[in-house]
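Q: Can I see a sequence and its folded structure?
A: Here is a first one.
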Amino acid sequence: MKPVLLISAQFCLFIFALSTQALAGTCRFTELRLNSQSAVNNFDASCTSVIGNISIAGADITDLAPLAGVATIDGTLTIQNNTILPNLKQLANLTSTKNLLIYNNDLLTDLSGLEGLTSNSGSIHIRFHKNLTSLTGLNNLATARIFYITDNALLENLDGLASLTTITDVLMISLNKSLVNLEGLNNLSNVSRILIGENDLLKDLTGLSSLTSVSYQMHVSSNKSLTSLAGLPTSISMSELYISDNNLLTDLTGLQSIGYVYWLVISDSKGLGSLNGLNNLNSATNFIIRNNPLLTDLSGLDNLTNIGWIQITGNAELKSLDGLGAGEQSNSETGRISASLAIGGLAITNNPKLTMCAIEPVCIFIRQSTASISGNGIGCESQAAVQSSCGSLPVTLAHFSATDENQQAILKWATTDESNSSAFEIERSLDAKAWLKIGEHAAKGESTQLVNYQWTDIHPLDGLNYYRLKMVDRDGTYSYSQKRMLRFELNQASTFIYPNPVSDFLFVKNARNITWLSITDLRGKIIFETKKVPSEGLSIERIATGLYHVQITTQGGEVKTESIAIY
């Protein structure tokens, strides 16, 4: 029996030796606080794997060399309030931590020393640094769960994050007062939530060109210098989008890739005058347009076909719902073209200048359902008022289009129902705000069939031309169609008058060679004529606002005609 017992004892000693050797580099701490250079110096340099939390925070800490052997930390590494710590280069062997919190280290200019980190399963916080100018050091970080980059006063971009492709929960970029762009995130493709706020110098979203999926939320808010949302890729899927309190943002250019959102909130942006940029949005489950004081209509939402619920509230200058679901949709069974937007729920409140709510999608909704409508202008102050306007519309407009054919604007429209209709007045604008009547077409009057109409603007102006129809009833009531826009690139060599449009003085090229000039209205009536054109310009201040034709005859007998807008 003794030889057997001896062998057993030797085997147990061998196993114990192996276990001791395997655990030699592993150190366990519940909460190790290194609050001075002396405490750092006393750290066991043989520790390569730490289980537990380490906090490094001390006013005299300058050297992290005793931690140089640490490769993994199964817990939280906090480095904070180290006022004279120059860098993190002595952490070069660190390959993983569960959480990495780096706060308020006054002398840090970058994160060199963290190149070994490739992924993080918990949180990374880079916050409250006075002199941090670069995220160099995180160059190999590919994935993270939660990543905060906030309150770094001198950080101008996000260079150093070139390997980052995925954030499984939230990426927050906020309160970085010097951040001018998001360069450095160029390879980020997937994120659950991204919050971009209160970065005072951020002008656009340049740097997010690879972002293809925001599976939960994107917030862009309170960025004082943001003038554009450009920077997003041409294809992106997004569940919820919140744009708020970016006061230099005038439109939503940059969001052209958005086709569907579950939640969309556009709010509290003092400079926002247009929703252009959402032109490809076709469906939204919930949509709020709130407290945008310069917004006058809803142009940009033409291609919406389905809204689960929409709230339009507190927009002080909103005058019409023009642009909301103005696209066309054909019914293959009947061949008729109908209003393309379906609304599931509707609230229109506290828009004091909004007087025109009786657009086809709204009329269809309130015939079948109850909307919350109050606090708007006359004609849109209640559901009953809107229903009255819907019932009195002279026509049901099926579609309205404008096309450029041989430098002329061909306007086509059709009605599916007319009752007591009188005429269609054609109006044109250079800015979609000030409108002038340029023509008229008689209406059918009474019809329940599809009736097609066409009218041609033979003298469009160079540049943008906006068109709309004023649909007039025999009793004088009227409603407006949606707007259509065309851009004309006319032969500039033939232009002989400038500026156009004009408000005070009209100048004519080669004025000395002109023997006769006339200005006529659209009916052909001569408003002004002269045989001598002064080189200092013609005063047109006494001519009423409107569209006119200018005709000149040169000394060689050549006759030229050009259209002009006086405002």
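Q: Show me another, different protein.
A: A second, unrelated one:
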Amino acid sequence: MTSVRYATPLKSPVTYPTPFAPPFSKVSTLLNTSIKYTTYSLNPEATATNDGPYGQSAYAAMWASASLTYLDSPPFTTTVSPTTIPQSELAFPPTLPVVPADNDDTTKLALPAGFVWGVASSAWQIEGGLQLEGRGPSVDDSIGALPSTANDSNVNAMFYYVYKQDIERLAAIGIPYLCFSIPWTRVVPFGTAGSPVNTQALDHYDDLINTALAHGITPIITILHYDLPTSVPYSDPNFSDHYLYYAKQIMTRYGDRVPYWVSVNEPNLEPANNALTNILIAHANLYDWYKNELRGTGKITMKFANNLAIPFTDSPADVAAALRYQDFSLGIMSNPMFLGQQIPSTVLHTTGIQIDALTKAQLKLIHGKIDFFSFDPYSAQYVAAPPEGVEACAADPTNPLWPTCVVTSNIDASGWQIGDASSVPYSFIAPQYVRAQMNYVWNTFRPAGVLVAEYGFPKFGENLEPLDAQRYDLERSIYYRAFLTEVLRAVNEDGVNVMGALAWSFIETNEFGTFDSHYGLQTVNHTTFERTYKRSAFDYVDFFHTHVPGS
């Protein structure tokens, strides 16, 4: 006979002994008194009037200039009232039938008390309603306006209006942390410093945070997750001013209730040019403002992308190539932030690179303005030197491998794939390299702690399966179990202070133009917008209940 086990809901609400910043009523004077607070409503058919550079006509003209056409309209335009999750949905699946090899030695190992575990998301990928409630266009919107309703991010998972139900579902299954992003162009539709601020957005995210806390979920906020305003590229020399204008709005209002902030998501994926310096300066200026003027006591980080480079062979050339790859991936921004050191010479000495060495003043500003290391180590990859050699490639900007000048592969020297592959080229079940990933950042940059801010596995062809098969996502469960088992070893055997792990994502997302790469711990029916837990959600929660004291 089998017995049914049910998920344990969170204890509500989250309360803090002391707030992480003064309440808005006491720090509102930190914001410029001349700022205009308003609302916008998009009506492309309205007759244009001369209502100034930031009026309703200018707002409509801004969207018109973006030349975007969404084939589907959002199915609802008001917040959906939540319903209690029936117990039948919270029944655990059958016991996980497969565990990592040699797992017996980890059954009694523990992660640190207070381990930050939960789930992550990004606004553009789940919110929908891109032209509603005053949001302005972002650089990501051109991806969402594709000639297929299946790829239309204007509809998406509709988290913007279904957030109360989603919070209810996370709390019911017992997930204690939610990382979400706030879109710059919802708060500041025109994007630039001095332009009006949208009060509907301020009210919306205030309620989202309060709803999470009331259900026992601690919020983690990403300030910028790819969706830049079309008017403010990273290369703008005034990027820092525009960014701080927006960021101060949300930090002054929500800082008392938010313990962790992510300034920018994966900026190291940008081309190696001086835009990266603009981002570093903006981050450092925000850090100083938050700590010194707002007097915030929360933690601030920047989130990096990195699938660790593993030398293809043990030859000196391949080892050097792997280190060069890491310099371009992580060292280019982490050297100045964590070590107070210059951008790696491998980057600066690459012929034709459009990035200048940091000045002494810039290094002083940037160094130490980060509280812990945060990255998205989905998998790993093999790296080899190019046939012509790294130096020859680095001296030739026309070389197709320039500027990194390395050859990447997911096949090892014996001809074996690095691990079980997902539907995209950067996710594999490859736990054999997780400890190396943790040790690399811990020993190289010597941070106070390491947060795995995203990790996940989009099961191949999952979107083509019937719902019952989609729910039984065994590969995703194996991915998380195997990954986290190696994190356990890194913590207990190597002394790495891994402080948390956030799964990508809590529901299926628009992966920048497609819904086919299903990362989510829950399915989304794009007709009814009903969510369904997958088995990976239960196995994920179960792992932390086993290995985190007090969970």
